[in-house]
Amino acid sequence: MIGIPCTVMRGGTSRGLFFLEADLPKDKAVRFKLISKAFGSPDPTGMQINGLGGTEANMNKLAIISRREGEPNTVNYEFGQIDIFSWTIDQKANCGNISSAVGAYAIENGLVDLIEEPITKVMVYNTNTKKYILEYVPVKDGKVNYEGDFMIAGVAAPGSKIRLDFLDPGGATTGKLLPTGSVTDIIKTDNYGEFEVSIVDAANPFVFIRAEDVGMMGTEMASEILARPAELKKMLEIRAATAVYLGDAKDIADAYENCKATPKFCYLASPKPYNSATEGYINTEDIDILARMLSMGRPGSIMALTGAICLGVASKIKGSIPQQLLSPQANASSDLRIGHPSGVLPVTVDVRSENGAYNAVSCGVYRTCRKLMTGTIYVL
């Protein structure tokens, strides 16, 4: 039995296991096998009874943190998405919600030299995307202050407000904001015909499609999507076909097996009223667009933070499917209010256009985080 120091953190609407890189084996194959076991994967039942996984994509996340030498108050952050049923730990992309806990974790573990009150700035370098995130972490009496009255959709308790500025988020995975060079593309599937989509890479690569094109309204809860297996199967094939189109997989079968995490899939609709899981009834005028996304093959009950960032950026690209579905006021603003199953997620984006070329300068969001447990995790 091997014991490894570990912290369980909630970041935004995700939960993950946080490790200091120095506490892990240097051999990555050994390291990742131990980490999979720590989560209770692989598990053919999907229950992860033998580990600390949470049976859902947003509760099976990994963060490995280290000091970034030569850059004051800066840390390296390596993200991993744990697959429940296999040994796979996908590292093609980042998780925005887990990112929101990195600054707090770094302060608590002595990786930040300059602690200032009431806010300490921590620069986070995500090694997956090679992008920086500037985090503003509340501090009181020299320690992270988790207490506050700020609420986010999808979390039942308040916390202190953490601001995150995702800097230069375009091309995080593919190297291009528009990976194909086009604002819209036609994706061909084996079983369902052709679909018009927008493929955008900001924070994470996403394929955006109109809800009506996949037989949906845009107001569905995750349980409703799961209850419609024919439509879900269609969405998953469109996502897989997009992976092939981008050159990430050799065929659809390969995309299903070896390219599960990216690109993400999101269907969209113009604003309309709906009942959310945590914020109750949402009026049409309270949102600028409706979004429902899939991650690791399953619909989410929340909007991933990287999804909100990518959607925010995509909504400022003229002619994109997100831009076509926006409320009129959002078309004239840098702010976007996204209606997702749990409520409303606001983002602020700075996207500039010159001679038809778009540049995503930054995207700002607010989250909360909390330390849940610190101790030793034991792996057989």
Task: Give a short synopsis of this structure.
With 380 residues, the protein is an alpha+beta fold. 19% of the residues lie in helices and 37% in strands.
Shape: globular
- N/C terminus separation: 5 Å
Largest sheet: 19 strands, mixed
What's the architecture of the largest domain, going by CATH? Roll
- Write the CATH fold name of the largest domain: Diaminopimelate Epimerase, Chain A, domain 1
Mean pLDDT: 94
Uncertain parts: none
- What is the highest CATH level, the class of the largest domain? Alpha Beta
Question: Can you walk me through this structure?
Answer:
The chain is an alpha+beta fold and 380 residues long. It folds into 2 domains: 2-172 and 368-379, Diaminopimelate Epimerase, Chain A, domain 1, CATH 3.10.310.10; 185-354, Diaminopimelate Epimerase, Chain A, domain 1 (Roll), CATH 3.10.310. The protein contains 9 helices and 21 strands. It has helices at 28-39, 96-99, 102-108, 222-226, 229-245, 252-258, 305-314, 321-325, 328-331; strands at 2-11, 14-20, 61-67, 74-82, 89-90, 119-126, 131-140, 143-144, 162-167, 185-188, 194-202, 204-210, 264-269, 274-276, 280-282, 289-295, 298-299, 335-340, 343-354, 357-367, 369-379. The chain has a 19-stranded mixed sheet that branches. Strand 1 and strand 2 form a beta hairpin. Helix 5 packs across helix 6 (252-258). The longest helix is centred in the middle third of the chain and has 17 residues, at 229-245. It starts with a strand and ends with a strand. The model has no long low-confidence stretch (mean pLDDT 94).
